[in-house]
Every structure is written in C-alpha cells, then in structure tokens.
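for the recovery benchmark. tokens below, seq after
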C-alpha cells in the first residue's frame, strides 16, 4: 500500500514498527524525545515508546527530572524514530497529556522489581556524588519496600504525545527520499496528507 492510499497514520506506523521489531538489533521502540527548557533551549534524549494507539504515543519518566519538568512546563513534545536497518524514520509532534493513574500503575507494576525500586532511588537528572550513593539508595529502597508490592512514586508517571503531525521518511536512491506528512487541526479532525520534497 502506498503512502497516499492510507487514511490513518497509525496504520502505517504499526506496519513500520512491526517491521523494525523484526529487523532492528536493539530497541526498535527507542525514540529521540525533544523538549524545550524555560529559556527556549531545546533538549533531546532517547526514551522507549511504551504504548501507542489512536490517542497517542506514551513514554514514562520521573516528573522531577529534566525531561519531566520540561514537558510539564510546556505540555508539548516531539519524537523521532530512526530505524537504521530499514532506512526509515518517523517524526511526531504534538501536545502532551499525563496518562491515567491506572495506566501508570499497570506499566509500573509490569517492570522488574529493581527498576521499580530505582524509581525511588534516583533523583533523576540531579547531581550525584558517586555511584556508591546510588547503590546505597537502591538498597535503602529495597529495605523499605521489599521486592513485591512496591508502590509507584507520586513523581513517576507517563506522558502521552497527542500527535498533530506525523511524518514518514523513507530513504531513496540518490537522496530522492519519500516524505509524507499527516497533519490535523485537532483531536478527532480528519488527517490531511501532504507529500514533501526530500
């Protein structure tokens, strides 16, 4: 199926992600996440996509860390997937909402106990004197909460990017790439499709 035959970008994204799961050596759900700080300076880092559907694209983090604070301040973000083995990329931009407590709890409880304890032990993005301090804090968290019913920290949850635009890029010979952008005027609005020069 060609780009222009599609009515919804999620269908194409699912197809590309499934192919990336088969071909990428590591972390096919890894995506560059872009935010902006209070001075307007951009920040980018890699996170893992932990869910997606017609509502948007979800990742989880410590809301008191740099990316959490920057997203909360603007409630806007962008993602960029690059699947090197497929020579494809996808760019997503939009407003952000916080996932429900039920969603956050379900994902948090699916994580390894050490990862759940790490959410308590780490003051994400803040200065750390030495590695031993983090190890001790992890041990302290385990002594306090055990390894079974570890509660989700109040500062740890998820964000959902509600896409206003989703661009698909496919490598082409002699740099004659294929670029298609789906855009809409708001949630529930019909997606418009536009081909772009490479």
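predicted aa per position
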């Amino acid at each position: 199926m060609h780009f222009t035959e599609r009515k919804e970008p999620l269908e194409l994204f699912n197809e590309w992600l499934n192919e990336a799961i088969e071909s990428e050596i590591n972390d096919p759900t890894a995506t560059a996440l872009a935010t902006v700080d209070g001075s307007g300076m951009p920040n980018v880092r890699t996170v893992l996509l932990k869910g997606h559907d017609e509502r948007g694209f979800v990742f989880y983090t410590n809301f008191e860390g740099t990316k959490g604070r920057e997203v909360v301040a603007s409630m806007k973000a962008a993602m960029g997937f690059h699947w090197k083995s497929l020579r494809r990329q996808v760019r997503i931009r939009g407003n952000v909402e916080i996932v429900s407590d039920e969603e956050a709890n379900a994902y948090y409880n699916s994580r390894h106990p050490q990862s759940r304890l790490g959410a308590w032990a780490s003051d994400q993005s803040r200065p750390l004197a030495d590695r031993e301090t983090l190890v001790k804090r992890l041990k302290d968290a385990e002594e306090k909460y055990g390894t079974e019913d570890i509660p989700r920290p109040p500062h740890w949850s998820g964000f959902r990017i509600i896409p206003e635009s989703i661009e698909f890029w496919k490598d082409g010979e002699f740099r004659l790439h294929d670029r298609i952008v789906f855009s809409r005027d708001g949630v529930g609005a019909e997606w418009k499709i536009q081909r772009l020069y490479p």
